[in-house]
Write a structure and sequence with these properties.
Elements lengths: L1 H18 L14 E11 L2 E2 L6 E6 L2 E11 L4 E10 L5 E8 L4 E10 L5 E2 L6 E5 L8 E6 L4 E7 L2 E6 L10 E5 L4 E4 L2 E3 L12 E6 L6 E10 L4 E6 L7 E7 L5 E6 L2 E7 L4 E7 L2 E7 L2 E7 L4
Parallel strand pairs: 1-8, 1-9, 12-17
Antiparallel strand pairs: 1-2, 1-5, 3-4, 3-6, 4-5, 6-7, 10-13, 11-12, 14-15, 14-16, 16-17, 18-19, 19-22, 20-21, 20-23, 23-24
Length: 304
């Protein structure tokens, strides 16, 4: 009998220690007139929580106004918090706390929200981020290219990206390689695109969406791919003390304009005639020459 009582007490204390730290957050819903709802993902130290014992709660001046466990959503293969918050007035400041059941810790969240009567915030594609520490809100495309494809020229202007590639490339089946802001994701519609693991038709400009790490920003980007009109070959002659340098551009198409730029400004232009354009008496320096979508950097040196 003593052994039975002892075993029972041991099991009781083991159970108490395992679950004793679970916060007893609760709210009396009948005390409040209004609600606001959230769909949120919960992140601690850069890792999304993924246990149905994890919790998130909302507070106003230390008073619990809403609490929920995380719920697994099979369609997203992720856990979300469906949180309903209660209040009697608009514009109360909501603070959040996270209970990480695996590590048995409660985390304060710096981010706040303002209570709005009957409002709903977040969805499965763009959920509210409840995180400690806060996640990045940047949604930039930092670099863009294609696997196995030479980029003759690329420009980024705001959220417009233009790339020129050789006309021999299959523009209907390109494998995009890209760099984004930390933690951000790239989408076409709601389909996630993996860098160097996709097949995209760029016959027409492609509209992308970049979702920030904290999912608060969904930024629209447009990528346009142009096929170069021909193949360019370049020959140069360095400057000497008594004469400037020479650059000859040989191109497969006539009547196109070759543009020579230096330090970001147009230096000279020539029209391709009989398959070539010649720039003479060039001063020492680095130039960019562009013709038919092809861009080449050429440096004219001073020959001793």
């Amino acid at each position: 009998m003593k052994n039975y009582i002892y075993s029972t007490l041991v099991l009781f204390f083991i159970g108490f220690n395992a679950f004793g730290q679970t916060p007893s957050w609760s709210v009396n819903e009948n005390d409040f007139q209004y609600t606001m709802s959230f769909v949120a993902f919960v992140n601690v130290d850069g890792i999304n929580l993924s246990d149905s014992n994890d919790k998130v709660a909302a507070f106003v001046k230390g008073e619990c106004r809403g609490v929920t466990n995380l719920t697994y959503v099979a369609s997203e293969d992720s856990y979300y918090a469906y949180l309903t918050v209660f209040s009697n007035e608009n514009n109360e400041t909501l603070n959040f706390k996270i209970y990480d059941s695996v590590n048995d810790v409660v985390k304060e969240v710096a981010k706040t929200e303002s209570f709005e009567i009957n409002e709903h915030n977040g969805n499965l594609f763009q959920a509210l981020s409840i995180a400690n520490p806060a996640l990045s809100s940047n949604a930039e495309i930092l670099d863009f290219g294609f696997n196995g494809v030479i980029i003759n020229d690329m420009s980024i202007s705001g959220t417009q990206i233009t790339l020129d590639i050789n006309k021999s490339e299959n523009i209907t089946d390109l494998n995009a390689i890209f760099e984004l802001s930390s933690g951000a994701q790239l989408y076409i519609g709601t389909e996630n695109q993996i860098s160097d693991g996709n097949s995209i038709d760029f016959s027409n400009p492609v509209q992308f969406q970049v979702l920030s790490e904290d999912q608060s920003v969904l930024k629209q980007w447009k990528v346009t791919v142009n096929l170069s009109a021909g193949i360019a070959t370049y020959y140069k002659k360095d400057a000497v003390c008594y004469q400037g340098g020479v650059l000859k551009v040989v191109f497969t198409e006539n009547n196109l304009e070759a543009v020579l730029s230096k330090d970001g400004s147009t230096y000279a232009t020539q029209t391709i005639h009989n398959g070539e354009a010649i720039f003479s008496d060039l001063e020492v320096g680095t130039y960019n020459v562009k013709v038919g979508g092809n861009v080449k950097e050429i440096t004219i040196n001073l020959k001793e």
